[in-house]
Amino acid sequence: MNIMDYGWLGKLSWDSIVFSKLFTNFSVSEVVASTAGSIVIFATVAILFLLTWFRVWGTLWSVWLTSTDHKRIGIMYIVFALVMMTRGLLEGMVMRAQQAAAPDGFLYADHFAQLFSTHGTIMIFFVAVPFVVGLVNYVMPLQIGARDVAFPVLNQISLAITASSGILLMVSLVVGEFSTGGWSAYPPYTGTDFNPGVGPDYWIWAIVFSGAGTTLTGINFTVTILKCRAVGMGFFRMPMFCWTVLCSSILMIFAMPPLSVAALMLGFDRYLDFHFFTNDLGGNMMNYANLFWLFGHPEVYLLVLPAYGIFSEVFSTYSAKRLYGYKSLVFATMSIAVLSFTVWLHHFFTMGQSPTINIVFGIATMLIAVPTGVKVYDWMATMYRGRIRFTTPMIYSIGFLILFVIGGLSGVILANPTVDFQVHNTLFLVAHFHNVLIPGVLFGLLAGYNYWFPKAFGFRLDERLGKWSAYLWIVGFMLTFFPLYGAGLLGMPRRSFSYMDLTFKPYMLVAFIGAMVVLCALVTLILQLLVSLRDRKKNRVPVGDPWDGRSLEWSISAPAPSYNFAELPRVTDRDEFTETKEQGRAYQPPKVYRNIEMPRNNPLGFILCVLSGILMFALVWYIWWLALITALAIIVVVIASTFRWDSEQIIPASQVQQDTERWLELVKNTEPVGRDLENTPQNNGYAKLEH
Amino acid sequence: MSGNSSSISKPPSVDPGAIHKDPDMVIFGFWVFMMSDLIFFGVVFAIYITMIGATAGGPGPRELFDFGSLFAQTMLLLTSSLTVGIATITMKHQRSQGSFLFWVVITLLLGLGFLTLELYDFSEMAAKGGVPQRSGYLSAFFGLVPLHGLHVTFGCLWMLVMIVQVLMVGMTDLVKLRFLRLALFWHFLDLIWIGIFSVVYFGGWVYG
């Protein structure tokens, strides 16, 4: 059927709505699908209702949606990531239940395939990436002593198109179906010959738009770090987190384009009958595999490097010691970033290259373990003879150290092509990458969430529930994924919706129990947030330094003022804030108060979020008139926004003076607390000098 | 706001919060964007190279390319790079707004001329059966060359907006800064075209 032959609503019809299948084909699988769809609808209605009930639309618009403040954008990224994580995690639960129930599962094969495709796509592109980007957005400009990122409106646009792509994925739960081709969406299976439905189209547009958002973010962060550091902050005085962010942002700039190209070419194949990756007429699927993993491998380092940065900050702060081996950590980070571009082929050792090529890429893969090993030793040496406080971020970090080494070692095993031939496409691989991504990336992000939360909101998170959650994540992770190593070695293929060989069954049952523990971890995480919100008065840390922090973000009030610093700092040391505290230079008023120029609020991001969302939906469903209108509208809106001449606002010196003096007065009246009382209500964010 | 590399602190009268207008940073940011765009092009180039010969029995470079028209396109685009350079120089030496606009309009016309010829070429190719649906090779061709053309179209649109803005508010710092980036972008497209000419057309003709 020609693509122009569709009517006003394109491919859309009543049968596209998920609930219609309940009537045509009543089954457990469809009930699960409809439940998921109704959760989306119910949650949307509930949120809209609550926003109206509490009359916060105005605040939402003027304080959040149109904000160009890097801190607010960062928080919105993280909220988005947590929402998506809840969905991704629940999908994981359903898949574990299905495999535990096999051979008598309750899902159709296609439904299971949609689950693993969305689970992977969501967890990588809509949880890990936005969570990383959110934390970086909040923390990095503060750490380098800047007022904002280099391009605040661009930052807003990045968030906008990432969010609209995520919303598109949510829509796919209700309207139509998602791709069954896995998160890597290999053609020709995802081509029109085998997949004429809308599933792969949902994947393509979500990836293209969110990928563009990530590329723009990479550009923004790179320029911010290279050009906006405070006076005196040489490269080797940057906090470790900023180094990892710099490397990760460079990876975004270089690694995202291959993904966009791959997804767009797949789109051309599907929409316009091109032959990039088709079986016939000269198409070449291997080009897709190469492009995808040319992105895919740097991507995992793009995610894990900032997590390494968070661990570095956490180990150093909670051991009350300078980070050990700073320069070796910097060089290790750089080496990993470079090496990450030389290993992509290990994702398809079995796809027919010569043994020589496989060996080259196998060795390159093993080499990455070396700088990573350097890092592990540096972190342990940082703790050595430090005054360690066993707080929530430290539990995540120590859990990471132990578990990540195991995951790394299973990676080295997989790097050997001969071994890989045996276990490729089995659950061994699934166990491996969850073993690096959960302890490596997720634990890092959750540690960072607990660590920086007081800075962002002015009160600490509940420590007891935080610890519970951390332990449950660790135990849940081990129970879920260690059995998969065993099942994989026994030969259980990944992505199987069922199996006949009952040898696998006990492994799947343990994994299912583990998944339940992970669910408890998520519930505790949410509970922790709710309890902390309830106790926010008790746990206030308005002075802003609850953990005796070492870098600049702790030197200002919590929450941070919109302009960050009343006077931009001059940096003399790597652990700048520790240095100023020890020399008694902390909490001083600026020599002179000046007007501060900051970017004004801008509705552009929100408008683009709506328009790009509609555009993607129209493209997925072949509603050409709508796609054309929204595409034109996007161009018009972007051009119109360049005619907005007064994009800056002035925060008057008097305002800055008033804020700062009030805060300094508060500092004066606050009792400094030692580290033993860190997690008690006595901690108002003023750290006592103890060494 | 000064970066570390050039750590000259600004005099106190200048507000240190005004980081968003720092020309150095804005231009640098655009270079970084072009770097990313270059990777985008580079990847598509790589795909094209692997697809040379994947004509599946359909028409190939020797049947489809018209080097006369390509020579004309190259001349138009290279000349437009020269004229956009002259426009930048008139801006730098603060010549009249009229002479600046004159060179911008010339550039715009050259760009449009290039696009017209390119579209004409595509239609000629289609008439000979050279459509992207025919083979992997032609898909790769039409993935790459129109991608450049799309960039040129975008550049032309940008130039139109610049002309309107100059007429509206004159040569303000912001307008100048935008034009500097446009000029960089235009030169960048020229470089890509040289790559396309050498790899896609010439390379395709030799190895296809």
From TrEMBL, chain B:
Protein name: Cytochrome c oxidase subunit 3
Lineage of the organism: Bacteria, Pseudomonadati, Pseudomonadota, Gammaproteobacteria, Cellvibrionales
Record membrane topology: Multi-pass membrane protein
Key word Cell inner membrane present: no
PANTHER family: CYTOCHROME BO(3) UBIQUINOL OXIDASE SUBUNIT 3 (PTHR11403:SF2), CYTOCHROME C OXIDASE SUBUNIT III (PTHR11403)
TM region positions: 26-50, 70-88, 100-120, 140-170, 182-207
Cell compartment(s), UniProt: Cell membrane
Predominant place of localization: membrane
UniProt organism field: Microbulbifer echini
Record-annotated Heme-copper oxidase subunit III family profile domain positions: 28-205
Family, as annotated: Belongs to the cytochrome c oxidase subunit 3 family.
Keywords: Cell membrane, Membrane, Transmembrane, Transmembrane helix
Keyword check for Cell membrane: yes
